[in-house]
Design goal:
With about 200 residues, the protein is of the alpha+beta class. The protein is about 55% helix and about 15% strand. Strand 4 (about 85-95) and strand 5 form a beta hairpin. Helix 5 crosses helix 6 (about 165-175) and helix 5 crosses helix 7 (about 180-190).
Length: about 200
């Protein structure tokens, strides 16, 4: 974010993450007031951030005071935060917007075509970083899941004298029968020492 401030000479900058089925969440902010602006946009269901996400296109606001695409309430909130112009550039990962790079200035008409070009370059670099971070997180989750499933298989092999293929088959069958992820079935077996849906025998 600090690099964006220096490269484009803007007053404030941010990156907001976009996760399918969830509210956009600020990832990095150079000014804490931006978090309130984003929250109000999401609650109202309108604003340049949401437009950049929905249209997957940059949104340039040369002068907040003459902007008519959104409600007057939005303009009042932005003006109160001492923002006069803004630029929102979506970051595309996997063919869809995964974040928005936003640049703000306390001067109207602060951003020109050169600034937009630089913003696109920054957005591409940020998109690559986000994609790499998500890939690493997915890999870590996959490794964690394999360890948990392996531990659950070991319990079944010891308790019922099964080989690894049969132990995995038991977990998979319970996963399908109960419409649950294999990892969740394994976690429940480890924590409760019994398979999901299996009631203890009455004496």
């Amino acid at each position: 974010m600090q690099f964006a401030l220096q490269a484009i000479k803007c007053t404030a900058a941010s990156v907001v993450l976009v996760t399918r089925g969830a509210r956009p969440e600020p990832m990095a902010l150079t000014d804490p007031r931006l978090a309130d602006l984003y929250r109000e946009q999401v609650d109202a269901g309108e604003g340049p951030l949401l437009a950049a996400i929905g249209d997957d296109q940059p949104i340039h606001i040369p002068d907040v005071t003459s902007e008519t695409r959104w409600s007057p309430n939005w303009a009042q909130q932005v003006t109160a935060a001492e923002i006069c112009s803004a630029l929102h550039v979506p970051l595309t990962v996997g063919g869809r917007p995964s974040a928005v790079l936003s640049l703000y200035s306390d001067r109207p008409h602060a951003f020109d075509d050169d600034d937009l070009a630089v913003a696109h370059i920054l957005a591409r670099h940020a998109a690559i970083a986000i994609a790499n971070a998500r890939h690493e997180e997915s890999m870590n989750q996959a490794v964690d899941a394999r360890k948990i499933v392996g531990q659950a298989m070991g319990m079944l092999m010891e308790r019922f004298d099964l080989d690894s293929d049969r132990a995995f088959g038991v977990l998979k069958r319970y996963s399908q029968d109960n419409n649950r992820k294999l990892r969740d079935v394994a976690v429940e077996l480890i924590e409760t020492r019994k398979l999901p849906g299996v009631q203890p025998r009455r004496r």
